[in-house]
Amino acid sequence: MTRASPFRQRGSMRGQSLAERVYATLKQMIFDFELLPGDYFSEAEVAERTGASRTPVREALHRLRREGYVEVHFRSGWQVVPFDFDVFEQLYDVRIVLECAAVERLCAMSEPPPMLQALRDIWCVPGQARSFDPAMAEQDKAFHTALVTASGNQEMARIHRDVSERIHIIRRLDFTQATRIEATYDEHAVILEALARRRTAHAQQLLSAHIALSRNEVRKITLHMLHEARSRHAQGPPEA
Amino acid sequence: MTRASPFRQRGSMRGQSLAERVYATLKQMIFDFELLPGDYFSEAEVAERTGASRTPVREALHRLRREGYVEVHFRSGWQVVPFDFDVFEQLYDVRIVLECAAVERLCAMSEPPPMLQALRDIWCVPGQARSFDPAMAEQDKAFHTALVTASGNQEMARIHRDVSERIHIIRRLDFTQATRIEATYDEHAVILEALARRRTAHAQQLLSAHIALSRNEVRKITLHMLHEARSRHAQGPPEA
DNA sequence: ATATATCGACTTGTATACAAGACGGTATTG
DNA sequence: CAATACCGTCTTGTATACAAGTCGATATAT
């Protein structure tokens, strides 16, 4: 079988391996609903699509499997893990636990980290200065990730990053409504206020409510979006 | 190259793949200090030792890499990640955060889960009924894992299990002293008491102190044990 | 003697060949 | 016609071949 669209780098690899790029490509396809939850596909299909051989494809797939995005059926192909809202809600709750712990540490610090002011510059702004582009989801993710990273425990930050990445696929859907974006700005602002004043319990309560609200909103939207995606793309799995 | 000691199953694989067994074997070797932190080794060596080819070996190694046990140097071999006590302490702190969150949920439940009584049967026993075998570390791990699992959030339980597994290599060292085993029994007992009486804050405080104590004890012991291991095994990496 | 250039053994990354089981369609048998 | 056995196709798991780069030892030049 000849390589289809060999997006291999010339010379050699420039920092990232072929397996890593296949990994990123596949995850992007899942996030873009180009591969729908429940879809079946084979390693050979992915190899042909990406222009790589099965070896790096398998490495990428097994990594995605460990991370919960796909699963393998013994000698019967791969499948995008179907949505399980219970799992997503549990992951939201993990976020609440980790981020509240981060808040406790942040408030206990002798001096507030400079990162806090940087966040205030972004989020504590009047209505006309607010951004509404589709990259809002990334900014929101960056906000919460920054809180945990600044708390000082890098292992906790790594775990939190993985959890955030995992629910990013549905969290994005929360930023398609203008009212939800407004609410995000408002809530981030008051959280940062409470943090600046070292009101630990208050900040934790605001943060918990903020995440829980997002969790509940997303559940409603996801079903709708999934339905739309199923209509746009035909039912054929990876061959768009 | 012919297979050395092919511990491959006859017929076919009975549930677990070759890659998984190589993974388990390597992790065991690391836990047994047969592969010491800092040791260098190659895929070919592991393949010869385990009787598998490089393919499943690579899969096992990359999984261990994702989990933080080994790292790969581009075309220069693999290395057991050297001990980093800062990382271990951070992981201990993650355990405190997760297990305290579990306690909060357990105390908030309308009725205590039956697992609580099972744990009391094990840990709330008089001195002569206590076990002192080397499997204590596993029992201790099971205690803490059970708390988080019983709290209901399975994703949190999975993360907690990974963290516990990661620090298990040094946590075992805490159970080589009889006084530490005694303390573990005592502390588990009072934690279970507080849980049964739904004293949330008290149980959290006891649990935090219990984990923090273990964290501090282990740091002291680890250096000693590492020194001993280095003396027993020669300096040659995997070829014992 | 010392510094440098070159070469070769060894490493991982990737591609391909082979093995063994799953699954569905088809032919066969009642 | 219905049920069943069989066989070919397709799948992943594993082994091996090839590619490209690293690193140290050795020889050479200054």
What's the layout of helices and strands?
The structure is a homodimer of 240-residue chains.
Chain A: H1 18-31, E1 40-41, H2 43-50, H3 54-66, E2 70-73, E3 77-80, H4 85-108, H5 115-123, H6 136-150, H7 154-171, H8 178-196, H9 200-232
Helix pairs in contact in A: 1-3, 2-3, 4-6, 4-7, 4-9, 5-8, 6-7, 8-9
The structure holds a DNA duplex (30 and 30 nucleotides).
Shape by Cα distribution of chain A = globular
Oligomer class: homodimer
CATH fold-level assignment of the largest domain in chain A:
Four Helix Bundle (Hemerythrin (Met), subunit A)
For the biggest sheet of chain A, the summary is: 3 strands, antiparallel
The CATH first-level class of the largest domain in chain A comes to: Mainly Alpha
Class inferred from helices and paired strands of chain A? mainly alpha
Tell me the strand order in the biggest sheet of chain A: 1-3-2
Report how far the terminal alpha carbons of chain A are from each other: 21 Å
The most extensive interface, with participating residues per chain, is: A-B, 20 and 20 residues
**CATH homology-level superfamily of the largest domain in chain A:** GntR ligand-binding domain-like
Number of domains of chain A: 2
Q: Note the total helix count of chain A.
A: 9
- Helix fraction of chain A? 55-70%
* Residue fraction in strands of chain A: under 5%
Which regions of chain A have little confidence, pLDDT < 50, spanning 5+ residues? 1-13, 235-240
- N-to-C SSE series of chain A? HEHHEEHHHHHH
Number of strands of chain A: 3
Proper CATH architecture of the largest domain in chain A: Up-down Bundle
Chain-averaged pLDDT of chain A: 89
Rg over C-alpha atoms of chain A, rounded to the nearest angstrom: 20 Å
Domain HTH gntR-type (chains A, B): 16-83
Keywords (chains A, B): DNA-binding, Transcription, Transcription regulation
InterPro entries (chains A, B): GntR_C (IPR011711), TF_FadR/GntR_C (IPR008920), Tscrpt_reg_HTH_GntR (IPR000524), WH-like_DNA-bd_sf (IPR036388), WH_DNA-bd_sf (IPR036390)
GO molecular function (chains A, B): DNA binding; DNA-binding transcription factor activity
